[in-house]
Amino acid sequence: MLAGVTLLQFMEKVPDRVAAEHVVHHLGWKYALDLELTYGGFHPTVLVYFRDRLEEKGEERVIFDGVLELLIELGLVKRRGKQRLDSTHVLGYVKQMSWLECAQRTLGLALEALESVVPGAERPGFWERLWACYVEGELDWRLSEAESKERYWQCGQDMGELLRWATQKSPELGELHALKLLQRVFEEQFEMVEGRLQPRLRRVKGAVQNPYDPDAHFADKGSKKWVGYKVHVVESVDPTEPAKVKGEAGEHFITEIITTEAAQDEMSGLAEALNRQERHHGIKPEAIYTDAGYVTERTLTEAEQNGIELLGPTRPDPHPGPYNTDAFSVDIENKQAVCPQGNVSTQWSRIRDSYQGTEYYRIEWAGQCDSCVIQRQCTRSRNGRRLLVLGLRHDLVEKRRRQMKEADFSKKMHPRNGIEGTLSELVRGHQLRRTKYRGMKRVRLSHYLMGAACNVKRYVNLMAFQMSRAALQAA
Question: N or C, which end of the chain has less CB nearby within 10 Å?
Fold first, then answer.
């Protein structure tokens, strides 16, 4: 019953207290949940404990899976159909903090956690000073730049001092979540330079932005910056179906929702989405429509190996000008390349970079570049010789870029456009844009519940549309 109440709660976007009241007074909810009219209900906190249990047992997707399995049984979702995929950003339920504020708040949380486990007589001599500054005190926003730097450095000193005392006091103290978080923030924001503690010049990737939700990370996509998460949404699509008119229900349903760190790339989201679909439901699509963020040499190679057609544009060559990689004719099979001036490569090397864990081809033309009339336009290297670096399956990227120039390529990509409407539906209809929860597990749970609610709404709308159309035809 609680699973049904939670699903209805996310369908109608009501808080726990209102959901508990609807179970008692709303006849539609009673009918949907198959409850007696005299059912007295339960306390709203029961829903909180239910979500806690789902999170603790790792069953965040159990309701979503149940709805999706029903759709598969009804034939509305095919295990070997076609799909479309896109991602969007999710704002965390915390504000973005400065380095100083993040460090001070983290230190304050650590002191509060230690207060409950360390008796007053066993606390260090600097305890009262730290408590007054970081727990009872507030950050003064009127500090000058010099004063802020001095306060930040002092905060780093205090963090290090508290961590050293806790380590010497008892190893068990270091296992406290607040102390682990303090150690993490300390290492992310400070470093030892010539025996002196100094703030890091650049914040490391995946650093804590707010101690109240360490899983909410910062991401920068040029014109878009946020602190929170990223979500990838996959839904079924049938390109052979005629375009729907306004008011006509569609037959596409969400088959997977992947919640990741904000800065994680699209390639990892694609691989994880395909893996989870196959593992949980045996879904292995024939083709999947995506945008340019998902179509790279790596994803094209993996799709070919798995027998999946990855449909979408690939990114153009990052180097502008008439003499970028696209201007060269490359034959991977025969290991030969021809430059824009018609010169054949003289050296073809396969390089294995153990540090980066990558492999690539390096192609050279040696002395042929010395007398080339377009040498200055073709390369900026000091020796004046062009060097071409390509992936092992550059032929797949080259093939896709040729397809992108075909007249009907844009028309073939039309089935992908519908995913934008799905994202808009989740944002506007289910409040996907800003999460109300903290922590990756709880945010992931909420996204799966949104996906389940969206699928149920679509199924109900489809049934209502088919019934009304049948009634009109009968009349």
Answer: C
* Residue 156 and residue 189 in contact, taking contact as beta carbons nearer than 8 Å: yes
Structure confidence by residue, pLDDT tens digits, 324-339:
888 888 888 888 999 9
In this structure, are 6 and 32 located in the same domain?
yes
How many domains does the chain divide into? 4
**Widest CA span of the chain, in angstroms?**
93
pLDDT of residue 358: 83
Residue 121 shares a structural domain with residue 263: no
Site of tokens 């923030």 = 185
pLDDT at 472: 81
CB 252 within 8 A of CB 236: yes
| Whether the predicted pLDDT of 425 surpasses 80 | yes
3-state secondary structure of 277: helix
Q: What is the pLDDT of residues 14-43, one digit of tens each?
A: 999 999 999 999 999 999 999 999 999 999
Residues 458 and 440 in one domain: yes
Which residues constitute the domain of residue 165?
99-199
Mean pLDDT of the chain: 91
Question: Does one domain contain both 161 and 269?
Answer: no
Separation CA 441–CA 333 (nearest Å): 46
Residue 253, classed as helix, strand or coil, is: coil
Within this chain, do residues 226 and 301 fall inside the same structural domain, yes or no? yes
Residues 197 and 187 sit within 8 Å (Cβ to Cβ): no
**Three state DSSP letters for 431-449:** CCCECCCCCHHHHHHHHHH
Round the CA-based radius of gyration of the chain to a whole number and report it: 29
Please report, rounded to a whole number, the percentage of residues in the chain having pLDDT higher than 70: 100
| Euclidean distance between CA atoms 435 and 94, whole angstroms | 9
